[in-house]
Design brief:
By secondary structure, the chain is α+β, with helices and mostly antiparallel strands. The chain has 19 helices and 42 strands. The protein binds 2-acetamido-2-deoxy-beta-D-glucopyranose (NAG) (12 copies). It comes from Buddleja alternifolia.
Length: 823
């Protein structure tokens, strides 16, 4: 396939230019077989026949010329494939672009009413942004009637939304354009999931089967979609909203036009943004975040389990409807009964169906409520109607479901909304003759013989013991996986590849059997009980944000406590800032985005989580960078795991005291402002490219934040402060802004420090920042060498507690950063 493609790209172009205008099809020309059309200008896109995967069905499509794994961005005849590309023809006929099959019948057409255009002049042109257009080709070739397209493929997207394209609402026809998933990875026919614009809310929604809405972006506020806060950290896609008399739509461009990027409605029911990194398509963003939030992802009678692999399974008594569809990742067909209901073969036998109770389920939508007083009445009501396929009964009463059961979710105990559903099955179904019934028989035997009783006792003990062991590999909550220690040991090759060490334990690189790369943290000095540990870990697991490292799972076997995280390709920030040997210089624009990203991650911890989480250990070592250099805050929530014993935390974080706010030492209660202080210290290091506490060559301590504060406040040349490796190449305004923010953040009085939310607004340009006052402890520092101990790394904890306590209130008369809004 790949060879074939390369042949097309590099060899066919000269050949084509003999046969066809490279980018254009006109009235007397046709495209068939292996011939392709190359887009005008840069030749970014190719149009031609393709067949997806191993299928023998051919389609007309557009794909990237520079991406070696053929990636289709548009399909013409989604629903009408042809079987022989050599005898099929794509041509312009009566003012339309049409696809003719072997017997010259039109099987796909642009479908224009061609009365008002001069038919013989119409040409189809593939533009360099991937848009295939029909236009009047009379006059001077490709320069005529610019903008006046008779038809364009951007108005008829399939699953891909390319930069420059749009997903619109047409006010004249009141029609919503759809971005529709493929049916499966080998069939471009429209699938069940579609994205559309809801013009009233200035938001996008995703629906299942064009009806059931299961996701919304939240409304557009001119910067982001309200329910997609992580889009704030986005320096790839520039979205904008257009609203005119004819239509409203969003469109987007790429900040860096040379990146190859696309937005798709995936067969998984998620929207995804992907970028080509010269080897692979890497996922930049996807929503809904969890697979099982996609409505009816597993089809009828299927259950979706966020922790099960694969996500989809059939209910007991059911089997997958189509093995081949399931293996292609199309679960929408769902499951069918292994045995027909008695009810269906003989109505009077309906009462001989039975119910199988399935606990811990997320129930289907649209139940039929029924006012009955007991579970047996509820069951009986379901039995009486042949179309009733399940019931649930609890304090809220009786719910019945008719026909197919959709959107069942397998939850884990303790999530909160899990319930037991009773599934109607044929009484002769094998699920009723399994081990459960054997138990009953055995219980009968107990009465007869004490010997048997003892044997049973042994079996029961064995079962209990087994169950206990089983819980080790059972998941705790949501997306967290409980790993076995052995699995992690083999994934990390017996903890051989150490990525780093930290206050809470060492981190090792590992590779899971499905070749996902992970980072495994071996926790030290965790003396918590099992239950408390799991509670704490599952809390951390629910915290997900684009600027926070995601916890995938954990392992807890006795004293062995490990956490499993996503592995971050570019390591931690300190390795890029402080180690000059790194091949890639972190240029200023990236540094600014990193500063913003860290702030957003912290803001999420401080303000958006259910309980405010204070990180307590913000430093470059705890800022990880993914392949796009998107920063991810690591190690959050661990301070809580160690316990609320701050002296303990202090000891654990020994060696990183340059980032600790004075209140850690003065002993007053720690608030989120302690993180703001550490964040300010990190900002200085982003600017200078060296440790704040680093000694200069002549052995004299030169404390960078003091210097930076005085340059900033005195209106000096801030580019002087910049990491020399950047050679002064940076936006002066941005450097000044960062320095001001950093000075505000490291104020001794936490009340004067801005909240991290304010920092985010300032860095986003939504809020202005005034000149900061000189941080008191810096003044003191410059005056008196005694206080060096507070900022150097080698000092041990505890001994300097009295030294900075004195000046906490003296600065409180200073003004706070201005909060006036700039727009
Ligand atoms: C196609 O038609 C145009 C004018 O209609 C003519 O100039 C051109 O030579 C034709 N090309 C071929 C290959 O017949
Ligand atoms: C195509 O078929 C070959 C051989 O039959 C198989 O190895 C390969 O995995 C198939 N590819 C896809 C995408 O199904
Ligand atoms: C071409 O399409 C027509 C109309 O859809 C159909 O009747 C005919 O069988 C097709 N021919 C071939 C060879 O598939
Ligand atoms: C095309 O023309 C027919 C009859 O002339 C008309 O009924 C139909 O609405 C037109 N379609 C469009 C899309 O304009
Ligand atoms: C259509 O094109 C032909 C040839 O280019 C020209 O002679 C004719 O006048 C055009 N007709 C109209 C209605 O534009
Ligand atoms: C298009 O035509 C205009 C004049 O009509 C000319 O100035 C311009 O350079 C042309 N553009 C291209 C891309 O040929
Ligand atoms: C989708 O909806 C259509 C009618 O709106 C219905 O006929 C079809 O069965 C639905 N598909 C599924 C998979 O339920
Ligand atoms: C983003 O897109 C808008 C609208 O197309 C444009 O005005 C703006 O300049 C773009 N911004 C950047 C930074 O490219
Ligand atoms: C709206 O549509 C009309 C008719 O198609 C067109 O003339 C006009 O330019 C359009 N307006 C905008 C803003 O696109
Ligand atoms: C579908 O069901 C069959 C039989 O129950 C099973 O062998 C097969 O593995 C299943 N396929 C998938 C993809 O789960
Ligand atoms: C249905 O079952 C009843 C009772 O078992 C029996 O009398 C009746 O003949 C059956 N009807 C059919 C159509 O099998
Ligand atoms: C069974 O329930 C369906 C849906 O509520 C209803 O339409 C139907 O009439 C019921 N059948 C009987 C026999 O009650």
């Amino acid at each position: 396939m790949i060879h074939h493609l390369i042949f097309l790209c590099f060899c066919i172009t000269p050949f084509l230019s003999l046969a066809l205008a490279v980018d254009t099809i006109s009235g007397n020309e046709t495209l068939s077989g292996d011939r392709t059309l190359l887009s005008s200008g840069g030749g970014n896109f190719v149009l031609g026949f393709f067949h997806p995967g191993n299928s023998s069905r051919y389609y007309i499509g557009i794909w990237y010329r520079r991406v070696p794994t053929q990636t289709i961005v548009w399909v013409a005849n989604r629903e009408a494939p042809i079987s022989d590309s050599n005898s099929a023809q794509l041509t312009v006929l009566n003012g339309n672009l049409v696809l003719l099959n072997e017997s010259r019948s039109v099987i796909w057409s642009t479908g224009l009413n061609s009365t008002n255009s001069n038919n013989s002049n119409v040409v189809a042109v593939l533009l360099d942004d991937g848009n295939l257009v029909l236009r009047d080709g009379s006059g001077s070739g490709s320069n005529s009637s610019v903008g006046e397209y008779l038809w364009e493929s951007f108005d008829h997207p399939d699953r891909t939304w390319l930069p420059g394209g749009k997903i619109a609402y047409d006010k004249r026809t009141q029609r919503r354009q759809l971005l529709t998933s493929w049916k499966n990875s080998e069939d471009p026919a429209p699938g069940l999931f579609s994205l559309e614009l809801d013009p009233n809310g200035r938001q996008y929604i995703i629906r299942w089967n064009r009806t059931e809405q299961y996701w919304t972006s939240g409304s557009w506020n001119d910067h982001i979609f309200s329910l997609v806060p992580e889009m704030r950290l986005n320096y790839i896609y520039n979205f904008s909203y257009v609203d005119n008399v004819n239509e409203s739509y969003f469109t987007y461009s790429l900040y860096n036009p040379s990146t190859i990027s696309r937005f798709i409605m995936d067969v998984s029911g998620q929207v995804k943004m992907l970028s080509w990194d010269n080897r692979d398509w890497t996922l930049f963003w996807s929503q809904p975040r969890q697979q099982c939030e996609v409505y009816a992802y597993c089809g009828a009678f299927g259950t979706c389990g966020q922790t099960s692999m694969p996500f989809c399974n059939c209910l007991p008594g059911f089997r997958n409807k189509s093995d081949s569809d399931w293996s292609l990742g199309d679960f929408s067909g769902g499951c069918v009964r292994e045995l027909d209901l008695q009810c269906e073969s003989n109505r009077t036998n309906g009462r001989r169906d039975k119910f199988f109770a399935r606990p811990n389920m997320g129930l289907p939508e649209h139940p039929q409520p029924l006012m009955v007083g007991s579970a047996s009445e509820c069951e009986s009501a379901c039995l009486d109607n042949c179309s009733c396929s399940a019931y649930a009964y609890d304090g809220n009463g009786c719910s019945l479901w008719n026909g197919e059961l959709l959107n069942l979710q397998q939850l884990t105990e303790g999530v909160g909304n899990e319930r037991t559903i009773n599934i109607r099955l044929s009484a002769s179904s094998s699920v009723f003759s399994g081990s459960k019934n054997n138990k009953g028989i055995i219980i009968g035997a107990i009465v007869g013989s004490i010997a048997v009783f003892l044997a049973i006792l042994a079996i029961v003990m064995a079962i209990i013991w087994r169950r206990r062991r089983k819980t080790v590999s059972k998941s705790v909550e949501g997306s967290l996986v409980a790993f076995g220690y052995k699995d992690l040991q083999s994934a990390t090759k017996n903890f051989s590849d150490k990525l780093g060490g930290g206050g809470f334990g060492s981190v090792f690189k590992g590779i899971l059997p499905d070749s996902t790369v992970i980072a495994v943290k071996k926790l030290e000095s965790i003396n918590q009980g099992e239950k408390q540990f799991r509670t704490e870990v599952s809390t951390i697991g629910t915290i997900q944000h684009v600027n926070l490292v995601r916890l995938r799972g954990f392992c807890s076997e006795g004293s062995k406590k490990l956490l499993v995280y996503d592995h971050m390709e570019n390591g931690s920030l300190d390795s890029h800032l402080f180690k000059a040997k790194e091949p890639k210089v972190l240029e200023w624009q990236k540094r600014y985005q990193i500063a913003l990203g860290i702030a957003r991650g912290l803001q999420y911890l401080h303000e958006k989580c259910r309980d405010c989480i204070i990180h307590c250990d913000i430093k470059p070592e705890n800022i990880l960078l993914d392949s796009e250099f998107c920063p991810k805050v690591a190690d959050f929530g661990l301070a809580k795991l160690v316990g609320r014993d701050f002296s303990r935390v202090l000891t654990t974080m020994r060696g990183t005291r340059g980032y600790l706010a004075p209140e850690w030492i003065s002993g007053v209660a720690i608030t989120a402002k302690a993180d703001v202080y550490s964040y300010g210290m990190v900002l200085f290091e982003l600017v200078s490219g060296r440790r704040n506490s680093e000694n200069s060559e002549d052995g004299k301590v030169k404390f960078f934040p003091s210097w930076a504060a005085s340059v900033t406040i005195d209106g000096g040349d801030v580019l002087e402060l910049l990491d020399p490796i950047l050679d002064r190449s940076a936006d002066v305004e941005e450097v000044l802004k960062i320095c001001k923010v950093a000075c505000w953040c490291i104020q001794d009085d936490e009340n004067i420090r801005p909240s991290i939310g304010q920092v985010v607004q300032i860095l986003e340009g939504l809020m202005d920042v005034n000149l900061p006052p000189v941080p008191r402890s810096l003044q003191v520092f410059v005056e008196s060498q005694e206080h060096i101990v507070f900022f150097t790394e080698s000092s041990s904890s505890g001994q300097s507690s009295s030294q900075t306590k004195s000046n906490t209130s003296s600065a409180s008369s200073h003004s706070k950063p201005s909060t006036q809004s700039t727009n």
